[in-house]
Write a structure and sequence with these properties.
Blueprint (H helix, E strand, L loop, with lengths): L22 H23 L8 H9 L3 E5 L5 E5 H5 L14 H6 L12 H10 L4 H8 L10 E3 L2 E7 L10 H16 L8 H9 L17 H7 L5 H17 L1 H7 L2 H24 L2
Parallel strand pairs: 1-4
Antiparallel strand pairs: 1-2, 3-4
Length: about 290
């Protein structure tokens, strides 16, 4: 047997004089610390700035549409189709009779979508892909309304007015709607309601009673509409452009630092993988 070749001549096998820990362990710890710092900096220093686009990102991942939701004050928010249209959150339902393998390694959508390939179910699980829209469409017999008004980032986007906070998950209105639709679905398995639009249609057609505490229409003052959607757009466009320029100037310094977070994170992983491969090669090749 030949003498094993030491990694970098045994440089990393030396121990420090204080703790008696080998240098390569300190190196791995430093790389791990660097990767964590880069991730935290990327997550809270860069990703949070794009919070208005999180709904669009979720829609792109799920392969669905997006929606601009306007509240009573006609202030809009860009959200995914799941948050804008689906009444239920299917990922929180407790399913019985499922093996722990299926619960931990496969996306929850496999309960409703048995034709979902296992490879996609695993990828969707660890990628955090939300499949509520596909589930709601199937349970609703694909009675689904799409009225795309604009396109944002290549994604078809609806414009929805939610003046009574139906889509706010913690609102009393949403909880009443969810309870009523759950009762209706149990009694009518072939005519289920899983979308706010179908629920509204059934309320207007008097197929369902309007719960106390939920409003089917709200009057918005014309002055509020005119201030949000002015007839003369020239002044609004100028003011919006000026605000955008000021915002870009304000964030110039932050952007110059934030752009280094992701390369540092990827570089740390790449260097750690490089060191691991060298150790493996030196161990088996003499």
């Amino acid at each position: 047997m030949g003498t094993p070749v030491l990694y970098f001549g045994g440089l990393f096998n030396y121990t420090d004089p204080i703790f008696g820990i080998q240098i390569y362990i300190w190196t791995w710890g430093a790389l791990l610390f660097l990767a964590i710092c880069a991730w935290v900096g990327f997550r809270y220093g860069m990703w949070d700035k794009y919070k208005p686009l999180w709904g669009l990102f979720g829609a792109i991942k799920a392969g669905t549409q997006a929606a601009f939701i306007f509240n009573m004050g006609l202030i809009s928010e860009l959200m995914s189709e799941r948050d804008a249209k689906c009444i239920f959150d299917y990922s929180t339902i407790k399913y019985t009779g499922l093996s722990w393998v299926r619960r931990w390694f496969f996306n929850y959508a496999t309960v409703f979508l048995p034709n979902l390939p296992p490879t996609k179910a695993i990828v969707y699980k660890f990628a955090g892909v939300n499949m509520d829209v596909q589930i709601a469409k199937k349970l609703q017999n694909y009675d689904w309304e799409n009225y795309s008004s604009v396109t944002v980032g290549g994604v078809h986007t609806d414009i929805i007015l939610d003046a009574d906070r139906w889509t706010v998950r913690d609102s009393p209105q949403h909880k009443l709607i969810e309870q009523q639709c759950d009762t209706h679905n149990e009694a009518n398995p072939d005519d289920q309601i899983h979308a706010y639009s179908k629920y509204m249609r059934y309320i207007m057609e008097k197929k369902l009673p309007l719960p106390v505490g939920v409003l089917d229409y709200i009057i918005i003052p014309w002055s509020r509409i005119d201030s949000s959607f002015p007839i003369s757009k020239v002044s609004s466009e100028t003011e919006g452009a000026n605000r955008q320029f000021a915002k870009e100037a304000e964030e110039a310094d932050n952007n110059s630092l934030s752009k280094y977070y992701f390369p540092i994170l990827m570089g740390g992983f790449a260097f750690a993988f490089f060191l691991l491969m060298i150790r493996v090669i030196i161990h088996y090749v003499h």
